[in-house]
Each structure stands twice: as structure tokens, then as C-alpha cells.
Amino acid sequence: MHTHGVVKIRISLQRPLKVKAGQYINLWIPSVSFWSFMQSHPFVVISWADGPWNTLDLLVEPRKGLTRELLHHAKNDNIARSRLVLFSGPHGASVEMRDYKTVVMIASGFGIAAHLPYLRRLIHGYNSCEIRVHRIHLVWQVQDLEVGIAAQPLLNDVLDEDKLDEGCILNISIYLESNDIPKVSFGKRATVYPGIAPLKDIIQAEAVGKQAREMQEQGISGDTIPVFEEELEFGRSKTTTRKGKMLVTGKTDCSTSPAVLMNI
Fold first, then answer.
1. Per-residue b/e over 190-219, b at no fewer than 16 CB within 10 Å?
2. At residue 42, does pLDDT exceed 90?
């Protein structure tokens, strides 16, 4: 099926399969593109469950080749059709996030797909008291709201799970590359802001907030310790001995797992 030019695929499996958050599969659909097996078409699995699954969900960005053909067939089919699907996998590693108290996820466009299984895994781990995370901030940069509207039901499903004891740990900020819109709410507990996401300011605020919460837990009063500029350089993995580390991940497409940008 497709929504606002975005293709959603659900694969029914012949036998249960265990897939870790962030892993991907290589896809071949003979009835859509017979020669697609000659090329690699990686798609990250956006669904996640605690145990083996009977279905796999994919979010596809139509570009060229197989993905363009998928959109063409989805538009021409009046109802969702069942097709023979062959795939290899799961492939790739999963980023371990269970030991962090704060996780900042940065996505642009279809990079949101790579973060969806991690959101589900983290919220499940928090609800079952299996991980340390107490705050997740998803920052999503989009050129237009088409992909946002298509992914809105998926984000709302995640937010529905984030309701332990009437509290919530997930905050979603969406930045639209246009200054022609005001700040507006978008679905459940998500806000759309105009312009480019001020990533450095966001990460600085999250890091300072993390330290303030740690000081409060330890009963320490006084000014919050600032985060130094050199700790906010992208591409540097900085491991510290501080209690309650903060992880920053990022992704720009829907093919594989997010990259670790920072470890504060």
C-alpha cells in the first residue's frame, strides 16, 4: 500500500524470525521487478517485537528501479495485493542503547524508518524496567510534510506504548524546511517547527538537562555543570566515566541502522 507517495510493505513469514532493532533485509519481488535480484535493495525492518515475529514491516522511499516500480504498482492496485517476496537476512548490527539514560535520535527524511524499531525497543525496555533510559528525544528534519503524514500513524503507534504510569519518556520535534508555517502540533505529542533543526542547541540542552537530573537524584544543589564545546563535535565518539551517559544517533535514509554520532 502507499500513502502520500510512501510505500508500506508487510511481509508474512512462513516461519517466525527474530530480527534485532536496526537490522535490514535485501528484498526481491519477481512480479514487480524480475531483474531486481541482480542488485542489492536493503530495507531496514521498521517493526520490532520482543521475540520471533510472523511479519516484517518496511517503509520504502520511491527513487528509481525497484522502489519506483513498487510505487507504480501500489498506485495502480485498488486494494493491497499479496505477492511473492524473497529476501535475505536479517543483516547488519544493532546499536546497543540499554545503558544510556538519555537518547537523542536525529533523522532526516526517510531516515525516520531506521529509528522506529529502536523507539519500540527502548519504550518496551523502559516499561518492563529492563533498561536505564528515562528520556528519548526524536529530532526529525523533513523537506515537506508528505513523508511526515505517511509516517504519522507509525509514530502514533509508538506513542501509544509510551504511557507507563501515565508518564512518558518520548519527545518528538519535527522541523520543516520552510519558514512559511507557524509552530503547530502534529499528531500525538509531536510538534512541527519551521526551519532547520538547531542540532547543537538541542544536544546542548539535552546534555545539560541530563546532568541536572543526575544532580537532583544525588541530592546535589548548585548550578548545572555546562557541557564543553569539544564534547559536541559530530563524528566523535566520546566515552566518559560519568554516570548516566547520553547517546546521539543519526540517519538520513531507510536502508540500514542509524550511526552513532556522539557518546557524551
1. bebbeeebebeebbbebbeebbebbeeeee
2. no
